[in-house]
Design brief:
Keywords: Signal. The protein has helices at about 5-20, 25, 40-45, 70-80, 175-180, 195-200, 265-275, 300-310, 330-340, and strands spanning about 50, 55, 105-110, 115-120, 125, 160-165, 185-190, 205-210, 215-220, 220-225, 245-250, 255-260, 280-285, 315, 345, 355. It is of the alpha/beta class. The protein has a single domain, classed as Ribonuclease Z/Hydroxyacylglutathione hydrolase-like (Metallo-beta-lactamase, Chain A).
Length: about 375
């Protein structure tokens, strides 16, 4: 979502908290993170992408259009018609036991929105986990869809790498990462996001953060390439003080791409040329709107981006759990299925919790959202 739109969505909840507890008390809560603190400023100040006091996109983003569509969109998010933006019954899911997965299987398991688990070459990766039943500074804003919060931190095995794309609340959840803290061996994140983890008591020795076009190499030739995307960052009112990113994971077994959040741009073709294509891509597909067209892709743009990065298998995310845009909750999956019909990649649409076997090209998926 754009900064303006997120601010709009948060205003009612934040105002209530400020009235009840006072602004200083709220801002200093641990869950807000390191925004505005010296630990963060020291990490980002020397980045070539940190310009005039904030991080900048390679391709500028147009601010949210404050027009009738924007106001109507906000109304539909706050007071949606039944069964449209928000499903009116629990979504179908599968509760896979992650702790008993065979170590020789390369798998992907989606938790809804942009949270997912992968096991590659026997190693575990958890990305952008949000296991709380809301994704905002306050518990009554951005609630989960019915039936989607079937996984809790206790269900997660030890994590070799926690991967965080940026610090928005729907991707970096304080309660979740703190509950998982003792299970996490490494944190990989874009520049500045590591300050939140240090502030929350994580050892700096396990935090690996980097700027765009840098690479973090872990044991046995595992490389996490931190790549650009068109987005923004911020936990409360601070803007663009931490970096946002996509990732390329290069292992001896596979090449995997995660888009993070962001609008369509020239970077996708560049990434495809840099890495020569990907075995598997997890791509943002949801929370879009014509009032914020450059910070979230339309499904048709996602299909184009998947072609430009030369992905062979594609799983859409950023949908199916939270309503951060007024589109029907089924719209992202319906549209990406249509847009992918004539493309040469394989579209993967698992239920929440369903195992995707990355080496099984014959695995089929039902249209569970229909």
């Amino acid at each position: 979502m754009t900064y303006t739109r997120r601010t709009f969505l948060k205003t009612a909840g934040i105002a209530a908290v400020l009235a009840a507890f006072g602004g200083i008390t709220f801002i200093n809560q641990a869950k807000v993170g390191a925004g505005g603190k010296d630990i963060l400023k020291q990490k980002v100040i020397n980045s070539p992408h940190y310009i005039n006091g904030e991080f900048k996109n390679f391709e500028p983003i147009v601010p949210t259009t404050m027009d009738k569509n924007f106001l109507s969109s906000m109304k539909d998010i706050v007071m949606p018609p039944k069964g449209t933006v928000f499903p009116d019954k629990p979504l179908p899911t599968v509760k896979t036991d992650l702790k008993t997965l065979p170590k020789n299987e390369d798998v992907y398991i989606w938790f809804g929105h942009s949270s997912f688990f992968m096991q590659i070459g026997g190693r575990t990766i958890l990305t952008d986990p949000v296991f709380s039943n809301y994704a905002s500074p306050v518990f009554f804003i951005n609630k989960t869809f019915p039936g989607t919060d079937i996984y809790k931190p206790k269900d997660i095995p030890d994590i070799d790498v926690l991967l965080i794309s940026h610090d928005h609340w729907d991707h970096l959840d304080y309660a979740t990462v703190m509950a998982l803290k003792d299970k996490i061996k490494n944190v990989v994140c874009p520049l500045g996001v590591g300050a939140h983890f240090e502030y929350w008591g994580f050892s700096p020795s396990i935090i690996h953060e980097g700027d765009w076009f840098s690479a973090i190499e872990l044991a046995d030739n595992w490389q996490f390439h931190i790549l650009p995307t068109r987005h923004f960052s911020g936990r409360l009112m601070e803007k663009n003080q931490t970096l946002w990113a996509a990732f390329a994971l290069i292992t001896p077994q596979k090449k995997i791409f995660y888009s993070g959040d962001g609008g369509y741009g020239k970077h996708f073709r560049q990434i495809g040329e840099m890495f020569g294509g990907f075995d598997f891509a997890i791509m943002e597909n949801g929370q879009y709107n014509i009032s914020w067209p450059q910070v979230h892709m339309m499904p048709e743009e996602m299909a184009r981006a998947a072609m430009e990065i030369k992905a062979r298998n594609v799983a859409p995310v950023h949908c199916g759990k939270f309503a951060l845009s007024p589109h029907y909750w089924t719209d992202p999956l319906n549209r990406i299925k249509t847009a992918s019909g004539d493309k040469n990649y394989r579209l993967l649409t698992p239920k929440i919790g369903e195992i995707v076997y990355l080496d099984n090209v014959n695995q089929k998926f039902v249209d569970w959202w229909m």
